[in-house]
């Protein structure tokens, strides 16, 4: 035990504080236990994150849109810049953006390290408003009618849209508009251009009735709004002669026709004859056949002649005052010729022009004109003949009737079918009331052309005529490479459309080819593949003669039609394929308010047949006929079964087509000519029955 020195001064002795050893060692342990759990939790979280990062794959979602997109992915997806970290598996992705349709898709994340998916959002429709001047215009978008202007907030799909705005009497407007979409508003305002021009006209005297294409539109003086295209203008005033002029109107270009001085009207002579159908000349110029109305220029005398084969010629002088009317009937004196009939059996009855003239063999004195003779007996086939007696020269007619069975074997078929499947019908004009008729048109007929000279013809020979125009499919069996073409994207080349772009030479060559195919004697003469003439006695296929075409198109009972539908213009209902309102962008001129459903040529037989069972004679395409083109002579000489010249530079075209609309062209007496192929000219075939 060591010894300590006592302090310098005495200090009191105090007890020291006592702390148990166990308590001192436990206190630090309780203080640091929560930290241990936190560390453990963070460690576990770190392990989970590392496990996710080590097992996840990168997926990039590319959104094609002009607006910011919101992307939702089902399940655990960790955004990482423009990518997402996901574990392999199936996920649903939903994408939304303002102005676009929502998009949902299923995606499979594979074990590949980096993957991507592209989402192209479809924009919502745009809101397009359309207004026009004038209002009330018809609006079509991509060929679908959506209403009339003004139109507000039309929901149109995004992209380029073809918008057409049309109003009556205005030029149609077509515009391609890029629709933004995304429910963004767009405004389209247009001013339509007038489809007319102002036409000013006056007359002396004033107050004349103004007609455009046959319709009254006012009285002079007047300023008229006339639609663009070709029109016929006429002034009509009581006691004055009609005045007319063709107009070619360009929209927006006014015309001033000045003052028209009307001429005093001619006198009118209503002329009839006994018998009817006599030829009439005035001052040596052929006027037509009775009954007819003659215009007599006032203030002087005129030489009138009335004549008919088999009758004595009648001549006299006529004179009428201005705007007066008169009527007279001329009785012609018959010139007779004797005809001896030798008939077997003796009980057979003879009829001349439908009237009984006795039975058995006999001699008849008949006017020296053509007569229809029928010899008949029950149980026997009736025989029909055409005879023309000659004064001072006796004619002999021998007829031996056949039984019905004998005649049936020899009878000509009423219908034939070609090797190409074409149907031809038999026609016997000599048995009709219009076998003798006048071709052409009166000079006073609205729309009449100078080449439509009135001249009499007579059809006595039976013939077959195709019911339809030759189609592309039929013509290509002859010329495989034939192409009828197209106009403004509208095809003329479909199988059942009529073959066009065919020259007259090609059409005639087609007829010869078909004749040889069926063993018939060719009608046309050919030299080195060129048609140089024809054989009138051949029964092979040919083009119809102009007289046959005119008779087939115009004769209806005892009448001659002016138009395929009758005598009034324009047609009330679709009867043929003409230039209707849908053809304006192709033809430039149309038949107002007429709709036939075809922009260019229609399939053959698309419209009703005539009373003769023929299709498209007055429309669809114009047609080549056989005759060389000439202007007929107005001398009154009757031509029987005329065929025209053997050859020439141009050939006659008859009938209107899908490109025609004017009153002049739609008349059945309208004549055109040419030699080369055209997009509105085709043909049909014919042949003589015997």
UniProtKB/TrEMBL annotation:
Where is the chain membrane-spanning? 35-54
Coiled-coil portions: none
What UniProt keywords are attached to this protein's entry? Membrane, Transmembrane, Transmembrane helix
SUPFAM superfamilies attached to this UniProt entry: C-type lectin-like (SSF56436), Carboxypeptidase regulatory domain-like (SSF49464)
**This protein's name:** PEGA domain-containing protein
Q: Which residues form the PEGA domain?
A: 86-123, 127-193, 196-253, 268-333, 338-402
**Pfam families for the chain:** FGE-sulfatase, PEGA
Sulfatase-modifying factor enzyme-like domain spans which residues?
A: 437-687
Task: Name the PANTHER family on file.
Answer: S-LAYER-LIKE PROTEIN
Record Gene3D superfamilies:
Carboxypeptidase-like, regulatory domain, paralog of FGE (formylglycine-generating enzyme)
């Amino acid at each position: 035990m060591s010894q300590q020195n006592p302090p310098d001064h005495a200090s009191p002795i105090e007890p020291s504080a006592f702390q148990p050893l166990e308590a001192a060692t436990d206190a630090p342990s309780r203080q640091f236990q929560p930290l241990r759990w936190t560390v453990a939790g963070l460690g576990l979280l770190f392990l989970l994150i590392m496990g996710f990062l080590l097992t996840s794959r990168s997926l990039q979602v590319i959104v094609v849109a002009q607006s910011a997109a919101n992307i939702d992915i089902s399940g655990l997806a960790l955004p990482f810049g423009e990518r997402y970290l996901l574990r392999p598996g199936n996920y649903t992705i939903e994408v939304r953006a303002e102005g676009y349709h929502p998009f949902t898709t299923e995606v499979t994340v594979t074990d590949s390290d980096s993957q991507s998916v592209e989402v192209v959002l479809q924009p919502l429709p745009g809101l397009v408003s359309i207004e026009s001047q004038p209002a009330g215009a018809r609006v079509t978008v991509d060929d679908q009618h959506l209403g009339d202007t003004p139109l507000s907030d039309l929901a149109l799909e995004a992209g380029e849209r073809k918008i057409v705005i049309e109003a009556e009497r205005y030029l149609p407007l077509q515009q391609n508009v890029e629709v933004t979409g995304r429910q963004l508003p767009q405004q389209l305002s247009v001013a339509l251009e007038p489809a007319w021009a102002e036409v000013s006209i006056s007359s002396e005297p004033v107050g004349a009735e103004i007609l455009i294409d046959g319709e009254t539109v006012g009285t002079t003086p007047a300023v008229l709004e006339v639609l663009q295209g070709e029109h016929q203008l006429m002034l009509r005033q009581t006691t004055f002669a009609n005045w007319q002029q063709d107009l070619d109107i360009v929209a927006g270009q006014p015309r001033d026709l000045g003052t028209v001085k009307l001429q005093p009207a001619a006198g009118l002579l209503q002329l009839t004859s006994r018998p009817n159908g006599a030829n009439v000349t005035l001052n040596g110029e052929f006027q037509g056949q009775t009954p007819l109305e003659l215009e007599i220029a006032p203030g002087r005398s005129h030489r009138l002649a009335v004549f008919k084969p088999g009758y004595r010629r009648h001549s006299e002088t006529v004179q009428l005052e201005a705007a007066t009317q008169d009527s007279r009937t001329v009785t012609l004196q018959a010139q007779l010729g004797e005809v001896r009939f030798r008939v077997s059996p003796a009980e057979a009855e003879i009829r001349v022009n439908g009237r009984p003239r006795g039975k058995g063999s006999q001699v008849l004195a008949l006017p020296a004109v053509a007569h229809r003779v029928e010899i008949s007996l029950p149980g026997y086939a009736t025989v029909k003949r055409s005879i023309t007696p000659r004064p001072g020269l006796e004619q002999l007619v021998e007829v031996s009737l056949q039984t019905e069975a004998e005649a049936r074997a020899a009878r000509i078929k009423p219908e034939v079918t070609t090797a190409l499947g074409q149907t031809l019908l038999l026609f016997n004009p000599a048995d009709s009331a219009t076998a003798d008729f006048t071709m052409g048109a009166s000079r006073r007929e609205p729309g009449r052309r100078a080449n439509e000279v009135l001249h009499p013809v007579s059809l006595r020979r039976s013939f077959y005529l195709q019911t339809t125009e030759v189609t592309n499919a039929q013509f290509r069996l002859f010329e495989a490479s034939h192409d009828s073409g197209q106009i403004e994207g509208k095809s003329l080349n479909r199988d059942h459309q009529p073959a066009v772009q065919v020259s007259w030479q090609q059409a005639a060559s087609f007829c010869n080819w078909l004749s040889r195919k069926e063993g018939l004697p060719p009608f046309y003469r050919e030299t080195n593949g060129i048609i140089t003439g024809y054989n009138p006695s051949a029964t092979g296929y040919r083009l119809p003669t102009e007289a046959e075409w005119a008779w087939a198109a115009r004769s209806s009972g005892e009448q001659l039609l002016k138009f395929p539908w009758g005598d009034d213009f324009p047609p009330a209902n679709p009867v043929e394929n003409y230039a209707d309102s849908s053809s304006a962008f192709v033809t430039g001129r149309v038949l107002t308010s007429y709709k036939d459903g075809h922009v260019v040529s229609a399939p053959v037989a698309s419209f009703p047949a005539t009373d003769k069972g023929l299709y498209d004679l007055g429309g669809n395409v114009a047609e080549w006929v056989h005759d060389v083109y000439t202007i007929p002579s107005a001398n009154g000489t009757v031509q029987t079964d005329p065929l025209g010249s053997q050859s020439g530079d141009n050939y006659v075209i008859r009938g209107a087509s899908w490109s025609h609309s004017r009153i002049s062209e739609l008349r059945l007496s309208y004549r055109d000519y040419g030699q080369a192929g055209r997009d509105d000219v085709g043909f049909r075939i014919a042949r003589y029955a015997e």
